[in-house]
From TrEMBL:
UniProt entry tagged with the keyword Transferase: no
Matches recorded under PANTHER family: LYSOZYME-LIKE PROTEIN-RELATED (PTHR32089:SF112), METHYL-ACCEPTING CHEMOTAXIS PROTEIN MCPB (PTHR32089)
Record bears the keyword Transcription: no
Keywords linked to the UniProt accession: Transducer
Matching SMART domains: MA
Family the entry assigns: Belongs to the methyl-accepting chemotaxis (MCP) protein family.
Superkingdom of source: Bacteria
The organism's taxonomic lineage, starting at the top: Bacteria, Pseudomonadati, Pseudomonadota, Alphaproteobacteria, Sphingomonadales
Protein name as catalogued: Methyl-accepting chemotaxis protein
Gene Ontology BP annotations: chemotaxis; signal transduction
Xref: InterPro entries: Chemotax_Me-accpt_rcpt (IPR004090), MCPsignal_dom (IPR004089)
SUPFAM superfamilies in alphabetical order: Methyl-accepting chemotaxis protein (MCP) signaling domain
């Protein structure tokens, strides 16, 4: 009797150990998943770092080229500044010469006016001389032969007076044209003088601008030298960060491998504890699990009766019952499926699952699992319509029509026994688990292994 009690107690303790192993293995799985996610992000960061290293190298090269360009630009601007300054000085001298032409042209115009006055006086003298010649000719005619020689002189004076008048008139006309041309030239020179004065002002502005440009180029050169120094220092910092990330990535990978190794070892321990728990449950002694084993066997018998009765009546066909051509439900997340057994299971077996789950407060849920881990239906509390965009909520509240598979379920599906008592981790999505005790009872229809009837509970 004491040996039976000891075996029973050992089995119960093994169950507790298996439950703890399940919880710890679940924790390690979550931790490993986080490490792997962090490792992936770290890998992405390392890829970004490689890009940054390349960009940094290009930046250093560009900064050095920029510095050389700044130096060359400084020399070119300095040389250009001297050349442009000399050119501006020559232009300024030319402007001053053009400006000085105004006074010379106005003096020339005064000379033309003076010559014009002289020409007018010469014309007047020629006219008076001609009149004098006419008077002398008249007087010679009166004197007869005695004044014939004077008449010849008078004619010559008149002829010279006419020639002098014509010359004076021609000179006057030429001087008039020269005066008009000179005045037009003075007008154009005055306009150019105004432009020259404006150019002079712009030359002063250009000199100031060139001085400013030379200063900016000098400042640009100084800044480019600073950029070269900063990029050189940043290149060293980036290299150190790159090495640090690489080292951290290697250590993260090692940590993930060690955590995964620890998880595997813990799962082996969990399997050993579950074997002891299952053997203890088959020892014939009453334990805390006996009630749930009995409830599971009764539930499996009722399921079998319903399914076999439907097969006998023709309400259900074996092809639909054993259908494994799962059809994905569009838009479901996590993925849900339908097969030939789904509608029958919802209508005939879900009420049974709800009723059996309500038999004990410790029961989390009763469900059916086919040979591939497919749940054609579930209790109503786990069979809600999915919410779009809420996969975590769907994972917990819309577990029907999904496919689940874990190590303990696989062992129960492959094992040969009247029932199996294991602890296992119920997958809640994205690395979340819940440690349960479950009784799995094999379901066999028409001599073929269909799957399991499961009662999950917490004690």
């Amino acid at each position: 009797m004491e040996n039976h009690d000891l075996l029973t107690d050992l089995g119960e303790r093994s169950g507790d150990i298996a439950l703890q192993c399940s919880e710890t293995a679940g924790f390690l799985a979550r931790l490993n998943r986080r490490i792997q996610n962090d490792s992936q992000r770290l890998s992405d960061l390392q890829s970004n770092m490689e890009t940054l290293v390349t960009s940094q190298s290009e930046s250093v090269t560009a900064a050095r080229e920029l510095s050389l360009t700044a130096r060359r630009a400084g020399r070119i601007v300095a040389d250009g500044h001297d050349t442009i300054g000399l050119s501006l000085e020559q232009i300024a001298g030319l402007v001053e010469q053009v400006t000085g032409l105004e006074g010379d042209l106005r003096e020339f115009l005064s000379v033309i006016e003076t010559v014009g006055d002289i020409s007018g006086q010469l014309g007047a003298i020629a006219r008076q001389t001609r009149l004098l010649g006419i008077n002398a000719a008249i007087e010679a005619a009166r004197g007869g032969e005695a004044t014939q020689g004077f008449a010849v002189v008078a004619d010559e004076i008149r002829r010279l007076a006419e020639q002098a008048g014509e010359s004076a008139s021609s000179v006057g006309d030429q001087l008039g044209r020269l005066d008009r041309d000179a005045r037009r030239l003075i007008g154009g020179v005055e306009a150019n003088i105004d432009r020259g004065r404006a150019v002079g002002d712009r030359i002063d502005t250009l000199r100031a601008a060139l001085t400013d440009i030379a200063g900016l180029v000098t400042q640009f050169g100084e800044r480019s030298e600073s950029i070269v120094a900063c990029t050189g220092q940043a290149e060293g910092d980036v290299a150190a960060l790159r090495n640090g990330l690489s080292l951290f990535g290697n250590r993260a990978a090692e940590s993930a491998a060690r955590v995964d190794a620890a998880r595997i070892q813990l799962e082996k321990l969990e399997g050993m504890a579950n074997d002891m728990l299952d053997r203890s449950a088959h020892g014939g002694q009453r334990t805390r699990n006996s009630r749930y084993i009995a409830l599971a066997e009764d539930g499996a018998d009722e399921v079998s009766a319903i399914v076999e009765g439907a097969l006998a009546r023709g309400d259900l066909h074996a092809g639909a019952l054993f259908d494994t051509a799962y059809r994905p439900i569009a838009g479901s997340d996590p993925a849900q499926y339908e097969n030939g057994f789904t509608a029958f299971a919802d209508a005939w077996l879900r009420p049974l699952l709800d009723r059996r789950t309500a038999e004990d407060a410790a029961i989390v849920g009763c469900c059916l699992i086919d040979i591939n881990g497919y749940l054609p239906t579930h209790i109503s509390a786990r069979s809600h319509p999915q919410r779009p965009g809420e996969p975590l909520w769907n994972m917990e509240h819309a577990r029907n029509r999904q496919i689940f598979m874990d190590a303990q379920t696989r062992r129960a599906l492959d094992g040969e026994s009247d029932f199996f008592l294991y602890t296992y981790r119920q997958d809640l999505g994205e690395g979340r688990y819940r440690a349960l005790r479950s009784v799995f009872v094999p379901l066999v229809f028409e001599g073929r292994r269909w799957g399991l009837y499961e009662v999950g509970y917490l004690i």
